[in-house]
User: Fold this.
Amino acid sequence: MVLAGQRKPKDPKALATLCAKLAAEKNAQTVLLLNIEEVDGAPASWFVIAGAQSEPQLRSMGEHIVSSTKKLDVEAPHSEGWDSMHWLILDYFDVVVHLMKEDAREYYKLEKLWSDAQFFKLSAGGRVVKYDPLKAKTKAGTAASEDEE
Assistant:
């Protein structure tokens, strides 16, 4: 479990990493972390994007992230999408978590929209590693660099 020994995240990257790990605990599909601090007009410092196969999985991921961050004294996020359960947004101000059913993720293509961002994903060991989405398309999703940030 991610929360074992966990302290309140000290900065936006730490919160984004925590949210990504919590989504992965609920078997999220293709969890990505986008550093958008340097992107003009960005509404936050980090995005976390994760896919879900079903509405119950999407709800479970959202509830798990909200309850787990609350246990660490992180202010509750503003949220939208609980009624439709196609795209759930958890806005922690500096970090915005996008939990999306795969069909919504494919339709809205946030990764393409924010392609100027620096992309990261979680390694098998749970570390944040650089990720090149262009290489992933050409190598069937196996292009994580082991360069840690």
User: Anything to note?
Assistant: The two ends are 23 Å apart (CA to CA). The first helix runs from residue 12 to 25. Confidence is low (pLDDT under 50) at residues 140-146. The helical segments are 12-25, 55-71, 102-108, 110-113, 133-138.
